[in-house]
């Protein structure tokens, strides 16, 4: 634990940005899964996917085309053999556009040419800058290499640093169903030789209440989970009276607003259905009006001129008749004529991406997210005052959702979701939506989520689709949002009114002591406490380790969650080093230089010589200790 003066407190207390415990190569790949080419949603339906965190899985989910749809078991032993036998044509290193970290992949096999390899390296993933290609050279081996992620039949192999655990690291790779996980070292020792047929995930037991991996889990269930529960053990929202009902339906209206404007640009209406205990959702849309500004739209009969760098805009007025079904990993798209007759049916696999979980807005589970409980407020709802309880949920793009739940239960004891403010997340306008005419669903209505199977049973066909029949959001276009996080207004507050889960102690107002705590992906617990009397922030990290090794803590200077900042430069570092017997720790502080971040042998060798005992500008005191197996 250590303390930082007031000048440095804001990034921890107000932004709720908790420090991360660094392993030897925690500066390496932390969010590999975004290298997947992208979920391919039919363009005619993409605009209707009004779902929190949609950009994460629309732009960075499972791979497109036939490879994306090829869900097959992974033969780890066979993949390892192919890895050893394959020829390295060259390698490509690029900066991850979201994490800012260096990612290296190798070109394997004999099918590559200089031109094709360079073309891939120039566009390594959506939104990334061109990488540096090294013909004939392999990737520099990471010190904590957990395995390789095999794409395109093993012709592209990406290094994966250990991310908390072997299974978690594997999950980042196999978020794209066509990818194969090839463990090495300790991960190879703990990995089964093969996974069950049709499985793209590490073997697991009961997956009820399981979250999708990474940032997707901030809002979504795991696709392979049989459903969610009102009593998901260990979750902050366990038995909360403000969780969405598990089975319900309601009418929904959405209205979008462009940046710096209060004028409605586009609106749509329909009905949504949820059976979260089954991992089912259905969305019917039957009305649209206005100018839709978004990346990835259906063919447009009335385009609207836009300025350079702005998303495509289309005027859309009149009735439509779309239905989207989402059951587990399967998403179905149905078009109907005005008489309700199905005219087209297609479907695709979303890999690990399940439906939105009913407590998504109340906690900070998942990755690259945070939550802020706001309390009660009177709002106008359907033209009348209504008391609501509100939460703000931060997403990976540093924007936020605001969820307004009914405060006073209705005559049947129900508290319904009423209003949701949704950011555009960079690929469309923000929008405000509200639900009404809510009711609970009966068991007999489960058939409403199987329209495709009923259609097929009556003689129709529902085609499995790939990239040639769909279009994902192109890169290079960023739509600004009115819902960007403001540093001065944000700090994490997890509060759910759960009768079981207890919020972290010490959460106070801005005028006194205040504390926040978060559990990191590797199981570490990090907390920050503002000491008003000393005008400082005390930050501590507690971790369980298998052996007594060094530990370190570094800080980011911007809102971008990247251990290696895109702009380069040195980073303030706190370092704990055990003695040879591992009984005692020496705490030091200093600057983590770019040469160390890039694993220069000379810089790494002389790393500790540049550190000193505290204090140092920005840090007043540091301690590190070993307590019964924890460090």
Outline the structure in words.
- A hairpin with a 2-residue loop joins strand 19 and strand 20 (384-394).
- Strands 10, 11, 12, 13, 14, 15, 16, 17, 19, 20, 21, 22, 23 and 24 form a 14-stranded mixed beta sheet that branches.
- The protein has 631 residues and is mainly beta.
- It has 11 helices and 31 strands.
- The longest helix has 10 residues, at 76-85.
- The chain is 11% helix and 33% strand.
List keywords for this structure.
disordered N terminus; mainly beta; 33% strand; single chain; 631 residues; six-stranded antiparallel sheet
Q: Which parts are unreliable, with pLDDT below 50 for 5 consecutive residues or more?
A: 1-48, 55-85, 192-205, 467-476, 506-514
- N-to-C terminal Cα separation, in Å? 11 Å
Principal-axis shape: globular
Give the class from helix and strand content and strand pairing: mainly beta
Mean pLDDT figure: 76
Number of helices: 11
Rounded radius of gyration (Å): 25 Å
Q: Sheet with the most strands?
A: 14 strands, mixed
Number of distinct beta strands: 31
What's the helical proportion of residues?
Answer: 10-25%
- Residue fraction in strands: 25-35%
How does the SSE layout of this entry go?
Layout: E1 2-5, H1 10-13, E2 20-22, H2 43-46, H3 54-60, H4 65-69, H5 76-85, E3 88-95, E4 102-108, H6 114-122, E5 132-135, E6 145-151, E7 156-161, H7 166-173, E8 180-183, H8 185-190, E9 220-222, E10 247-257, E11 264-275, E12 280-293, E13 303-304, E14 313-315, E15 318-327, E16 330-336, E17 342-349, E18 353-356, E19 370-381, E20 384-394, E21 400-406, E22 417-422, E23 430-440, H9 451-457, E24 463-464, E25 514-519, E26 525-531, E27 536-542, E28 551-554, E29 571-578, E30 585-592, H10 594-597, H11 601-605, E31 621-622
Parallel strand pairs: 17-24
Antiparallel strand pairs: 1-27, 1-31, 2-28, 3-4, 3-5, 4-7, 6-7, 6-8, 9-18, 10-11, 10-23, 11-12, 12-14, 12-15, 13-14, 15-16, 16-17, 19-20, 20-21, 21-22, 22-23, 25-26, 26-27, 28-29, 29-30
């Amino acid at each position: 634990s250590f303390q930082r003066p007031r000048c440095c407190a804001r990034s921890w207390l107000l932004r709720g940005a908790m420090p991360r415990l660094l392993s030897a190569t925690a500066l390496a790949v932390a969010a590999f899964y975004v290298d997947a080419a992208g979920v391919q949603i039919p363009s005619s339906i993409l605009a209707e996917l009004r779902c929190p965190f949609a950009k994460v899985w629309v732009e960075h989910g499972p791979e497109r085309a036939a490879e994306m749809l090829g869900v097959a078991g992974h033969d780890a032993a066979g993949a390892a053999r192919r890895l050893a036998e394959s020829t390295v044509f060259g390698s490509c290193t690029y900066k991850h556009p979201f994490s800012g970290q260096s990612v290296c992949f190798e070109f394997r096999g004999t099918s590559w040419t200089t031109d094709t390899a360079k073309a891939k390296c120039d566009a390594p993933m959506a939104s990334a800058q061109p990488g540096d290609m090294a013909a004939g050279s392999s990737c520099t081996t990471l010190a904590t290499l957990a395995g390789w992620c095999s794409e395109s039949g093993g012709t592209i192999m990406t290094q994966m640093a250990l991310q908390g655990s072997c299974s978690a690291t594997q999950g980042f790779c196999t978020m794209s169903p066509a990818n194969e996980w090839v463990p090495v070292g300790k991960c190879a020792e703990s990995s089964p030789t093969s996974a069950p047929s049709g499985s793209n995930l590490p073997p697991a037991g009961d997956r009820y209440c399981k979250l999708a991996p990474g940032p997707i889990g901030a809002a979504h269930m795991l696709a392979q989970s049989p459903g969610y529960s009102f009593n998901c053990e260990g979750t902050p929202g366990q038995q909360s009276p403000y969780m969405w009902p598990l089975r319900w339906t309601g009418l929904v209206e959405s209205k979008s607003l462009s940046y710096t404007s209060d004028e409605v640009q586009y609106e749509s209406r329909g009905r949504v259905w949820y059976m979260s205990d089954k991992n089912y959702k259905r969305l019917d849309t039957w009305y649209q009006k206005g100018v839709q500004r978004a990346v990835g739209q259906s063919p447009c009969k009335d385009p609207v001129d836009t300025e350079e760098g702005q998303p495509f805009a289309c005027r859309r007025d009149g009735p439509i008749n779309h239905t989207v079904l989402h059951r587990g990993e399967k998403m179905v798209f149905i078009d109907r004529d005005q008489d309700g007759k199905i005219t087209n049916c297609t479907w695709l696999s979303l890999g690990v991406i399940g439906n939105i979980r009913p407590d998504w807005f109340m906690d900070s589970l998942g990755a690259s997210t945070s939550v802020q409980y706001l309390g009660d407020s009177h709002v106008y709802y359907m033209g009348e005052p209504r008391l609501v309880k509100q939460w703000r949920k931060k997403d990976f793009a540093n924007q936020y959702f605001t969820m307004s739940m009914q405060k006073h239960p209705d005559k049947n004891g129900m508290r319904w979701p009423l209003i949701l403010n949704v950011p555009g997340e960079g690929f469309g306008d923000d929008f405000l939506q509200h639900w009404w005419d809510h009711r609970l669903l009966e068991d007999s209505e489960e058939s409403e989520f199987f329209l495709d199977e009923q259609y097929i049973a009556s003689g129709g066909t529902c085609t499995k689709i790939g990239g040639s029949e769909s279009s994902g959001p192109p890169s290079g276009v960023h739509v600004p949002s009115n819902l960007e996080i403001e540093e001065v207004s944000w700090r994490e507050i997890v509060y759910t009114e759960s009768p079981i889960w207890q919020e972290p102690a010490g959460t106070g107002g801005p005028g006194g002591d205040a504390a926040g705590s978060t559990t990191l992906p590797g199981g570490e617990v990090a907390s920050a406490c503002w000491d008003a009397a000393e005008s400082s922030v005390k930050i501590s990290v507690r971790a369980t380790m298998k052996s007594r090794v060094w530990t370190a803590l570094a800080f980011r200077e911007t809102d971008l969650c990247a251990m290696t900042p895109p702009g380069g430069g040195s980073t303030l570092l706190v370092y704990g080093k055990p003695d040879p017997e591992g009984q005692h720790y020496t705490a030091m502080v200093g600057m983590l230089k770019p040469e160390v971040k890039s694993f220069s042998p000379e810089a790494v060798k002389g790393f500790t010589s540049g550190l000193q005992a505290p204090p140092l500008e920005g840090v007043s005191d540091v301690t590190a200790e070993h307590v019964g197996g924890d460090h």
